[in-house]
Amino acid sequence: MSVIAEVSVSADSAVAAELSAVVSVLRELRCDDLSGRATFDAMGQVLALRNLIDHHAARLAAQLDRLGVARDHGRSTRELLIVMGFAPSVAQRLLRIAASLDTLPTLHAHAADAAIPAEHLDAIVRGVSHIAGRSAEPIDDALRLTHVTDLLGQYFSGATPADIDTRARTLGNQLASDTNGPPAAEDRQLNELTHHRDTDGRLHLDASLDLEVGEKLCAALNALSAPRPQPDGSRDPRTIARRHADALDTILDIAARMPSDIASAAPKTQLLLTIPADTPTLAELDLLGSVTQATLRRLSCDAATTTLLVDDERVPLDISREKRFVPPHIRKALHVRDECCIKCGAPANRTQAHHLTHWIDGGDTSLDNSCLLCPACHTDIHHNGWDVFLGTDRHPWLIPPAAVDPTRTPLPAHNRRTLNLDNLSAAA
């Protein structure tokens, strides 16, 4: 055996021996006869020890992954940790923390000092990831450090992991408002829903949804999953997960009973949007948190959104009226005039009504101030610099952003396009 190999084996043995000694000490520890003060102090030391153990567990998880220990046995590192005895959620948390060791050194320096529990550490890691995901461009190290410092400040001021998550969403929303294009949390192009059957024949769903669709789903599930007391007055025995599954069943039944012609149907799911009067950039949906101003404008077109203006103490100052919703007779007229999404040609029954002059900017709800856009194109219009106006032919026209067409030549609605643009005079 070479000298290097001998040194390596010796170091391995030393670490294992030290950890074994710590385990032995803890096994023999007795705290039953301590005074109140001594018990409090001991709990503080146990917390520090727990923080250090979680920190080293994350570092060891990173090393297991780097060395390919699980791959050598045909497993993922997560599967290996679960087999070793870690709960699946804990294994996933350790791997999330492990993946951030190189990119968030300041955060992990605090973890190495036993200053932060794993739950808060994980909340900050997820928060920084969320903020980065809401930026249209990659964030640099300096900006990442600014966000880590902000979230660490939340922890040291007494914030819970949920509070840190809320703060991260707010920071992500502010960053998204300063960048071009929809942030990841509001990008419909990233939406996915997959399903597969297991060996018992049961169907498993997995979805990744943008804020608006997610808010609609959560609102619908919440509305239909309220606990139902038993006939004798006892509590509903169903778990929350079971009640949500029953609510999904109800949603599918409702959809199946809808008429085939749903082009004129008004939105049914009610969304609540709260806007602080002094900081309107911090507008947030009731269930899923903050949204950008571009999404606020898009929601005000056709989604059933009630806008609530509040002061700094969250006392309501004003509440919007719902007259902005396009009524059935105008939706039918839009169906006849536009026939489809004016931008991409998606079928009319998959579209939303868009206000050419935004409702929140004083635009009225009328045929001449509306057009049909599918959800993806609706997002594109609001986020990426497209303009829509009514031509002299009383049909909607689109003006592309300069990034798409440097001349910004008007385009007719999809149902009125030909192989040439010889009808440009109608746009004047």
UniProtKB/TrEMBL annotation:
Q: Which residues form the signal peptide?
A: none
Report TM segments. none
Q: Which Pfam families match?
A: DUF222, HNH
Q: Which SMART domains match?
A: HNHc
Question: Which Gene Ontology terms cover its molecular function?
Answer: endonuclease activity; nucleic acid binding; zinc ion binding
Q: Which InterPro entries match?
A: DUF222, HNH, HNH_nuc
Instruction: Name the protein family.
Output: Belongs to the Rv1128c/1148c/1588c/1702c/1945/3466 family.
Query: How is this protein named in the record?
Result: DUF222 domain-containing protein
Q: What is the lineage of its organism?
A: Bacteria, Bacillati, Actinomycetota, Actinomycetes, Mycobacteriales
